[in-house]
Amino acid sequence: MKLLITGGSGLLGSKIAEVATDRGYEVYSGYNSHEPKFGEPVKLDLMNPKDVVDAIRKIRPDAIVHSAALTDVDRCEIERELAYRINVEGTKTISKVARVLGSFLAYISTDYVFDGERGMYKEVDEPNPINYYGYTKFLGEEYCRDFCIARTCVIYGAKPASGKVNFALWLIDKLKRGEEVKIITDQFITPTLNTNLAEMVLECVERKLRGIFHLAGATRVSRLGFARKVAEFFGLDENLIRPIEMNDIDWIAKRPRDSSLNTSKARRLLKNKPYDLRKALKVLKDEVS
Ligand code: NDP
């Protein structure tokens, strides 16, 4: 299969490119400013739709995973026009070219389409984004209704990507240095290991599954609970973790209080099941060492 991944330099895209390369796919890794490690690199700046369309027309992929986005939630809140162009217009461009070429599309969306008032959201629940990032990702979904929309939550993995470390790597590094960290007690998530997510997304692509799927970790946990489990698994000092509350943080954009995703549909329909936290951290530990 000829697979194009937008955001192939990112935390999720790089793992999808790695797994797909291992499976023998012909992989094209779209990027903007960070050269991808896996697949054939393809410069794709979503701010330049014409170049994006030309590049994709040349490749003629069987399938596209659209993982690229402006993911900095606070930046999206301030630089709204930029967020709109990348996350909404960019997704419109990708979905249009996918339709024209007859390529299957999987659009990676987010738990932030929900307001976080209830948690454990199912695919049928009504989105109600409370920040601009979530709003742009939700608008992006509108262009992908006839394809696969894969919503996920707090991705982590063994390697830095796109010039950034993820929450788990940041925490492990801080605790290893003996530094104190402040972690939120009253925000709930279903953290997702990028390896597990990559396998689930690839299965959706291989089976051409259409509709919305919540592809996330199977365990709902607070940020603090997640941090404590990471510390426990990596044999690090949990006493360095200081509990704080969401109100203690001066975020620019509002965050949902409980954006955990219910993954029962994925558990029921996919061969690659969402990992519970224990399994995911075991795999993470193997990957890190
Ligand atoms: P990253 O922030 O790690 O990577 C973002 C990717 O988007 C990079 O490859 C980046 O390219 C690319 N990108 C950014 N701007 C542009 C642009 N103008 N043109 C082309 N590409 C661009 O993202 P993640 O892997 O963490 O996220 C993947 C997807 O999952 C996103 O769609 C995100 O909304 C969604 N998601 C992420 C969550 C998380 O916790 N991380 C949670 C829920 C959903 P480069 O680095 O080369 O500039």
Question: How is this structure best described in words?
Answer:
This protein has 289 residues and is of the alpha/beta class. It has one domain: NAD(P)-binding Rossmann-like Domain (Rossmann fold), CATH 3.40.50. It is 39% helix and 18% strand. The chain is built from ten helices and 13 strands. The chain has helices at residues 11-22, 49-59, 73-78, 80-101, 132-142, 167-176, 194-206, 223-233, 264-269, 277-288; strands at 2-6, 26-31, 40-43, 63-66, 104-110, 148-152, 155-156, 181-184, 188-189, 192-193, 211-214, 221-222, 241-244. The strands form four sheets. It has a seven-stranded parallel β-sheet with strand order 3-2-1-4-5-6-11, sandwiched between helices. Helix 1 (11-22) links the parallel strand 1 and strand 2. Helix 4 runs parallel beside helix 5. The longest helix is centred in the first third of the chain and has 22 residues, at 80-101. 49% of the residues are buried. It binds NADPH dihydro-nicotinamide-adenine-dinucleotide phosphate (NDP). Residues 7, 9-13, 31-34, 44-47, 67-71, 86, 108, 110-111, 137, 152-155, 161-162 line the site of NADPH dihydro-nicotinamide-adenine-dinucleotide phosphate (NDP).
